Amino acid sequence: MATEQSPIARQPTKLDYSSPTQFKFSINQLPKVEFFTVAANIPGISLPPATYNTPFKNIPTIGEKPEYEDLTITFIVDEFLENYITIHEWITGTGFPKSRTQFSDFRSATSNNPTDAKSVSVDKVGSATPDKGMYGDATLTILSNKNNPLVEVRFEDVFPTALGGLDYTQAATDVEYLNVQVTFQYKIYEIVTL
Questions:
Q1: How far is CA 144 from the centre of its chain?
Q2: Predicted TM-score of the model (pTM)
Q3: Which residue among 95, 103, 158, 160 is least packed, with the fewest CB closer than 10 Å?
């Protein structure tokens, strides 16, 4: 049986609303992006139903594998493109479009989580190369109206999948600083109340 509660017991105790401008985003791989971040999201999550097949109608049941949407941030590009270049290097280090050394150089030197892995000849079998240097951890902190941290959304093993382009034009009538969007995938995120 359901427990009866009075309407007074069901009233909220916190009446302030969440402001979309009160947040801070940080990611250990991209220290030069944190200050310039102007938009970030808490990705949606869904749990597609599993289906129990019958001869008549397929019956939906509770799903077993949650699906997470992408983490997307928008940041203002600094004058020397430092924050843009760090993400660009991360993507090219992961995808190594010119040579395989781009991957090992990023993993062992450029990454903020460097991995001390020695190059092994391709004809020798050895232990697996650690790839922790290719990922980063990120935190989206939701702030109160007095800029006090209230909630942290902690993303584990973040990596970029898309970086927007930069459009320069002489036709602009007013200076609008360049914003760019970057999309990340991640292993999982959790929401922690502080």
A1: 22
A2: 0.80
A3: 95
d(CA 150, CA 193): 6
| Amino acid present at 14 | K
Distance between CA atoms of residues 138 and 26, nearest Å? 6
DSSP state of 9: T
**Amino acid symbol at 16:** D
CA 93 to CA 109: how far, in whole Å? Answer: 11
89 with 33: CB under 8 angstroms?
Answer: no
- Average of per-residue pLDDT across 142-162: 94
In a 13 Å sphere around the CA of 108, the CA atoms on its Cβ side amount to 11
127 vs 31, 59, 111, 160, 182, CA distance in Å? Answer: 31, 46, 21, 26, 33
Half-sphere exposure of 141 (CA within 13 A, CB side): 13
Measure Cα distances from 55 to 46, 85, 137 in Å: 28, 57, 47
d(C-alpha 115, C-alpha 129), whole Å: 9
How far apart (Å, rounded) are the C-alpha atoms in residues 190 and 157? 12
At a CB cut-off of 8 Å and minimum separation 6, what does 82 contact? 32
